[in-house]
Structures are given as structure tokens and as C-alpha cells.
Amino acid sequence: METRHVKLGYEEALNAKKQILSAELNLLQTAKRVRNYKILRKKELTTKIKLKTGLKALKTKLNALKLTFPKEEEEIEDTVLRSKLIEEFKNDLTNKSKKWIIQENLI
Hints:
It is a single chain. With 107 residues, the chain is mainly alpha-helical. The chain has two domains: 1-69; 73-107. It has two helices and no strands. The model has no long low-confidence stretch (mean pLDDT 86).
């Protein structure tokens, strides 16, 4: 490969060196910003993970605490009503089955 030399004036050479140094400085600053961004992003993700696990633990504790509280009257009434309906249904079935057995015996 052939080397060629270009003659530059003092002012031109000085400006070229300034521009090269300025470009290098900008690249270094950009690299520093990227490095800082990566560090901050990693911190953010670890903080989010800690927050998520903390919220899960809190939710579990709240649910456990909620189970220790007494039930509200409406919930108690609903469960009593359900149990009454179930009993009536069972009694109705037994009565119908008894009637059917009696009818079968009569025929």
C-alpha cells in the first residue's frame, strides 16, 4: 500500500487535532453514559423484583389475617340459607323416593 502525505497548514492541523480530540471526548462521555445506564437499569430491575416478592408476601399475610376475622352477618346468613336449602332438597328427595317405593309396592 502506498503512503501519501498531504501538507496542511498550521491552523488546519490544529483544527483537525481539536476535532479529533473533541470526537474522542464525546465517545468517552457516551460510553460513560451507557455504562451508567446499564448500572441503573440493573438496580431498577433488582428493586422491582424485591418489590414484587414483598408484595406477594404482604398479600399472603393479608389473606391469612382476613381469615382470622369473624365473618360478616351477610356471609353467615348466606351459609345458613344454603344449608337450609340443601336440607330441604334432601328431604324432598327422600319423600319422593319413599312415595315411589310405596307406589311400586302397591302395584
